## 1
Amino acid sequence: MEEKYEFEKKFRDQVLRCSSCGFCRAVCPVFGLTKRPAFNARGKMLILKEVMDGNVPLNEELIETLFQCTTCASCANQCPSGVNPPEIIKEVRKDMVHRGTCHPAFEGMNRILQEHTNIYGEDEPEDFERERNKKAEFVF
């Protein structure tokens, strides 16, 4: 038995509220392209239930699956149970970053942000402070 994944109560309640009806399948763009059951909201909610119960470890493969979501909210709009999968998935992603077990793409972005304070990996130009303090004559 694996260690249970502790999840904020409001999100845990939403995961448990999923009735696995599958209405999300018809509107999920990722599922539409891949046809992989784990890539639609129902699949992700089933995976999260198993992880929260300690039946499945939250490993790299599952993390990759949880990151296969555009968070477009089409599934939330179709859900008769009122579950908001994009909100849950964003919360899990945020939690993974804090745990240090996030998707490799986020690890790289996090490192760049820590080093350069911008996503482009560029240092501030030397004259940036001078430009920042200029006053505009007109603002549109």
Note: The radius of gyration is 20 Å.
## 2
Amino acid sequence: MKNYLNDIFGINVKIEEWDGKKKLPLYLRNKREYYVAYMENMQCILMKNNSDNFIISRFEKEMYEIEKISGMSVVLWLDAVSTYQRNALIKNRIPFIVPNSQIYVPELGMCLRELCAGKREKVEHLSAIAQYLLLYFIYKEKIEEVSQAELMEHLDISAMNVSRAVLELQELGLLETRKEGTRKLVKAVAIGKELYQLSKEFLQSPVQKIIYVASMHYDMGLPYAGETALAKRSMLNFPKCTVFAMDKKKSKDIPKEYLIDPKLVTDNDYVEVELWKYNPITFAKDGVVDIVSLVESLKNIEDERVEMQIKEVVEEYKW
């Protein structure tokens, strides 16, 4: 396995037995071997399956549990795989490696390509996942270390996405990391307004798309966003159309017949829903989206009223 990964990624890979196995419940230890693969400043768990059973749903559940316990992403290690099994794994986005034969670890490959690419272009904007993780530290009450496992649980994102976001923020000097055994601990260089000021040049709007939903069908319990959220935080008049925010991943739950085109209706009996690149509910307060994301979502609006109220809201906000 080590030589195979060395050849694939062109870097020095170190593989050791994972001493965290003893922390796992019995059903996760039975007919399983666990290793830690160290690649540059990244690491992941290799779960070797020594059972004849091949059940996708079981693999998904087991790997999720191990990610929560270890704080690292998990890659399935198989000695052989049939065409059917390979297709099933890829369809369900389960990363796996068959030494000297096949490898499917898309997120890991992306991270390693970034690490090994040499001189990188200057970062203009944070990725959405890095910005989402940054918000966690901006809104913390004090500077303290947290494990990647804690970040996974609080933000409900995968170990691989946490690793990518931490690396991105670390390269900008916004986070510091250290290892404690097999755990990776993360700490921000500041919190609150200070961290916001350090990072704001890299922030982007969380809004990916805007949809409109007929008011008679709206009952989703979403936080207020856009000019509606700003009006709730300032003296700005409320817009004619109420604005909410939703994680883009949840938009598929809205029946298509509930969607409307404002250009084709004569009244304002509908709401505007911003589809965000990360979950707006996580940092919402009192039913309103968080202040940093709100400011970023409105910064390209050329309206003096909005610009003035944004400035006042940021100055008066109690970080």
Note: Residues 128-202 form a domain with the Arc Repressor Mutant, subunit A fold (CATH 1.10.10.10).
